[in-house]
Amino acid sequence: MDCNNSVKFTLLSAALLASYAQANTLKITPHIDFSYLHTDNLNASVSDPSAEQITRISPSLYINNKGKHIESNVNYKYTKLIYNDNSHLNKGFDSYNGGVLFKLLDQRLTSYLSASKIRQQNEFTSAQSIYSDSDQTDVVQYTINNRFTSRLDNIANYDLFWILGEVKAKQTDGSDNSAIRDTSSHRYGINMASGDFFKSSYWSLNLVESQIDFEQGASQNQAQQKFSQYRAELGIDIANDISMFAQYYDENYDVDNIQTPNLISSSYGVGLRWQPGNTSFFKLAYNWTKDDLNSNFISSELNWQPSSRTKLSLSSSKRFYGDAYSASFTHRHKRISTSISYTEQITSFAANSLDPSQVGSFLCPNTPNFTLAECTFSSGEVPSIGADQQLIPIEQFPLELSNKTYLNKQFSSKISYQLRRANILFGYTNGRHKDLSNNVESRRESLFLNTSYHLGRKDTIGFNAKITQFDTMAQNTVRADYRQQEYSLNYSHSFGNAMSLSTNIVHRARSSDSVDNGFKENRLTLSLTKGF
Predict the structure, then answer these.
(1) 282-294: per-residue pLDDT in tens?
(2) CB neighbours (10 Å) of residue 282?
(3) In angstroms, what CA-CA distances link 515 with 152, 475, 510, 511?
(4) How far apart are alpha carbons 67 and 75 in whole angstroms?
(5) Residue 515: helix, strand or coil by DSSP?
(6) pLDDT tens for residues 322-333?
């Protein structure tokens, strides 16, 4: 048994043992999906488009258990592709994600062990799909996330965390030319804040250390990335709802690259904070820099939450790359959910980032007041929404899959609307990312519309559209700029007894500055799914 299968077996066994320990909440759901797919351009080639018919068989198993001290879930899927005209492309591969959560010491100590495996394209700008047989990598990720939350009498509240991660990447053609190198990483930190003892003053302290080690590749040396961030703040009341505070900030990125020196930013400042409520405040400060990259500056931060349905946050400051901004606005109405955000962050690659974040959506009760415990996370971009649910989307800029460090700046806006049987999700993203090793910048804009309509209790129809523009913002590099359009029309019918039939028609086309990067494809898929 190889390492990957051993880890899968261990994870499945742990989840099952945890489930059997509290079998009253055990849920096991097997599925099997039979699909027929026809495409008129298998490899998204402009010079040699080839049609192909593919039979796909996908059995899957979902195991879930939720108990007082242990929660576990495993979602495993095996996909077999059988090609009608190109039998040498026949292949089978599996994907999975799952974990076990332990809640100890009155849930103050949590430990989450997780593993996942996905098959994905190597390159961010690749036009080919998972059905082709080139430039694909199986990426397996293991994570242990430990967190301890407590307090020291009424003096301080604190939160300790320690995260270990490992990523294994394997080129599907057996070569050592994967765009992703194997890595191991750790991340630890502490967050502390003043307790109830402090009546007319407050303080906070945040420390984070991260490190990613890249294994030596076929033509690459071993590399390392380090990141540290320190924040401290001390405030004293001077009037009703107004405090004077002092703050300190320091960050240090070391990307271990000859072309890139350490990326350092350090400053301290004093200012005023106005806090009219428990969830709203405004801060304004003058800061003196300790590094040689920035000049003194004025920073500000606004957090306004007039109700549980509406939240606005804004901030401006300086980091090693200069002026830094962030913004976020969310509002939930009875039928409308709106989200607007602007973020700036440093990442490595999608499978193992210095600033990790989840991508997907929360399906929550369609009520004004709810907690995240009542919501279900879905990794799909357009999950099916029930009549009593609302969609709260979560998305980040799709990262290029390589071992480089990027500065990502992204604006994202989404609005979802639900009216009886209809669900509509409209969104726009505009992201720029800069390779910190050579300062080459690229831009990606996306505009998408996803709709669904329940024709009846058993029938649903949907239409999705997405337009993407990718530009390389450098004149001295090989340009792969393109504009891609994707449209799909889908229909599903439920027969009851966990059986459903669905059909999906897809048209996608790309126009590019490079002739070889353009293509057109039409795809038809018929699927029959049976649950047990």
Answers:
(1) 999 999 999 877 7
(2) 15
(3) 65, 18, 10, 8
(4) 18
(5) helix
(6) 889 999 999 888
